[in-house]
Amino acid sequence: MARDRDVAAFGERAQRYNEGWLGQLHHQIADRAADLALTCAPAPRRILDVGCGTGYLLGRLAARFPQAEALAGIDAASAMVEVARGAATDGRLRFMAGTAERLPWPAASFDLVVSTTSFDHWADQRTGLAQCARVLEPGGTLVLADLFSVLLLPTLLAARRGKARTRRRATQLVTAAGFHSPQWHRLYAAIIQAVTATK
Ligand SMILES: C[S@@+](CC[C@H](N)C(=O)[O-])C[C@H]1O[C@@H](n2cnc3c(N)ncnc32)[C@H](O)[C@@H]1O
Description:
- The protein is α/β, with parallel strands linked by helices.
- Helices cover 35% and strands 26% of the residues.
- It has helices at residues 5-13, 20-40, 56-64, 78-87, 125-135, 167-176; strands spanning 46-50, 70-75, 93-97, 110-116, 136-147, 180-188, 192-198.
- The longest helix is centred in the first third of the chain and has 21 residues, at 20-40.
- It is globular, with a radius of gyration of 15 Å.
- The two termini are 27 Å apart.
- The chain binds S-adenosylmethionine.
- Residues 2, 6-7, 10, 26, 30, 50-53, 56-57, 75-77, 80, 99-101, 116-118, 121-123 line the site of S-adenosylmethionine (SAM).
């Protein structure tokens, strides 16, 4: 299990992650990502949330996709997974500890993969996206929401060096992972955006 600084910090915040203005912000982003998922994948059967945190988005997706058979969430911080399990009220939900870079499912296990505000923390974004493509069946949909903006270019010179924080760089990685038809959507303010793409 990855124990990088980002993940350790999320583990420490897990119990209070949903609280306060930051918790509200994450819920609003997740709600908009759920709306977006509905428009590009109207009837998925098997859904994966990568970097699922406390499971809020997956719970919303369970409510909005009553036909879905299974909804899985994975997160690198085991404390987040414990909170998600404790909050789950739908029997189709499953949460486990693990990383985007080593998804523990066979190829073509899902038809919708979502991820909100987690990608920026992945230690190896290229490998994580390749794993998302691997576990999606052909024709499956990726919904990836995070901080993407040229306004963030200065941050690439310091703490977030090497991260895909612009549409251009993220589009390159998404395409290199094997996705096609990437489309960009503004989710929240100017810098929280989502890219949707098809395997
Ligand atoms: C800002 S939180 C977002 C949580 C949730 N998706 C949401 O929208 O509220 C980022 C999450 O990504 C997880 N994370 C960081 N690196 C990861 C990785 N390589 N694989 C899976 N999850 C990771 C963190 O543990 C944390 O729970």
